[in-house]
Amino acid sequence: MKVKLPGVQNISIRGDYIRLDSLLKLASVTSTGGEAKLLIQNGEVFVDNEICVQRGKKLRNGNVVRYCGDTLIVRQSV
Q1: What is the distance in angstroms between the CA of the first residue and the CA of the last residue of the chain?
Q2: Domain boundaries in the chain?
Q3: What is the CATH number of domain 8-76?
Q4: What are the mean pLDDT values of the chain's consecutive 10-residue runs (78 residues total)?
Q5: What is the pTM (predicted TM-score) of this model?
Q6: Closest Cα partner for 62 from 72, 70, 54?
Q7: Contact, 59 vs 73, CB < 8 A?
């Protein structure tokens, strides 16, 4: 049984990785790459509990991204 926690979203990816800025757009955190870039550069995004300022950071299965109280978990689809 899967339990959905408030503010937690599993994001399925098809390849081995997804870039951080692309993940934020895919999850509808931002609507454009420019918005994603600003959030990341301003230090508002955490990857695995550390501030990440690399918008091209490669995220893989199991990485956890946090922004404004919401949590995104990267899951590789099979």
Answers
A1: 19
A2: 8-76
A3: 3.10.290.10
A4: 65 94 93 93 96 96 93 90
A5: 0.87
A6: 72
A7: no
